[in-house]
Amino acid sequence: MNRRKQRKRRAVFSVLSVASGSSELVASSLARIHVVRTRILTTILGWLAVLLILRVLVAILANYPDYFPPNFDSLFLQGREATFTGPYRPAFYIHIFSGPVVLFNGLILMSEYVRRHHSRLHRFLGRVQVVVLLLLVLPSSVVMARHAFGGWPAGLSFLLLSAATASCAIIGVVHARRGRYDRHRPWMLRSYVLICSAVVLRLISGTAGLVGVPSAEAAYVVAAWSSWLLPLAAYEIVERFAKRRPARMSPWALADPQMPALPQ
Ligand code: HEM
């Protein structure tokens, strides 16, 4: 902390000390201000993320007229006449129907409000999410990964992504069934962060297209790997950082030390 900030803090602290006559009360007030500020910031960031996910989802759905019937001049299907046969064709249609379901459903499942006030709805949508993810989205992506744009380096990334997403979802379900909701939540969050790779992939490859990269294939391979490794790393860093800070405690927890911290 720089000197100016320290001086300002000391000044606020001493004014409040004089006013209240208790340094503990002042410390708890400052901590509470910090909690409220952090909460406002995380709420704003959360809503921005929701808007971004919805915006990209609309852009993905806008391409669907090119798939009914398949237009092999469209961006994604260009040059895929040979691969759009056998198991690839049903896998593709299963994937493009089930993908948006888990992306949108996941937004509702991540809502703290729905979890607290409509726990039965949360449970129902959670079951739908796991079934659609494990039986439709991920198996179809494995079939499609074999013919990914960018060849095997991109395909390998999609295979590992599928395995990681399935593992996080299964571990999350096991914790939920054992009633360990504090452990269930981070695993389901990880699984959703990985599902959102579909959004990040399009953001990165869209930016690469705008910037004008020399090799579209190489850019796609980089986008395929970064689309899930970067968000996952960011999630792990934020989660560890949040655990160490008192900001995760609710204001009432600060007011009353007997009160537990908010569930992680
Ligand atoms: C972990 C989850 C996911 C994996 C592993 C995955 C994997 C894949 C793969 C391998 C492809 C073919 C890529 C290529 O040939 O270059 C693909 C295409 C596609 N995926 Fe996913 N995907 C996932 C989630 C989603 C989600 C959540 C959506 C929701 C919108 C989605 C929508 C699509 C669409 C629409 C295509 C066709 C291409 C396009 O129109 O952009 N996927 N996905």
What's this entry about, in short?
The protein has one domain (41-254). It is built from ten helices and no strands.
Description:
It is built from 10 helices and no strands. It has helices spanning 3-20, 23-62, 88-110, 112-117, 119-145, 152-177, 181-195, 197-211, 216-244, 251-255. The model is unreliable at 247-264 (pLDDT under 50). The protein has one domain (41-254). The chain is mainly alpha-helical and 264 residues long. The longest helix is centred in the N-terminal third of the chain and has 40 residues, at 23-62. The structure holds protoporphyrin IX containing FE. Protoporphyrin IX containing FE is lined by residues 57, 60, 63, 76, 95-96, 99-100, 102-103, 137, 141, 144-145, 147-149, 158, 161-162, 165, 194-195, 197-198.
The computed structural class is: mainly alpha
Number of alpha- plus pi-helical segments: 10
Gyration radius from CA atoms, angstroms: 23 Å
Order of helices and strands: HHHHHHHHHH
Proportion of strand residues: under 5%
Q: How many beta-strand elements?
A: 0
The major sheet is characterized as:
none
Structural domains: how many? 1
Distance between the termini: 28 Å
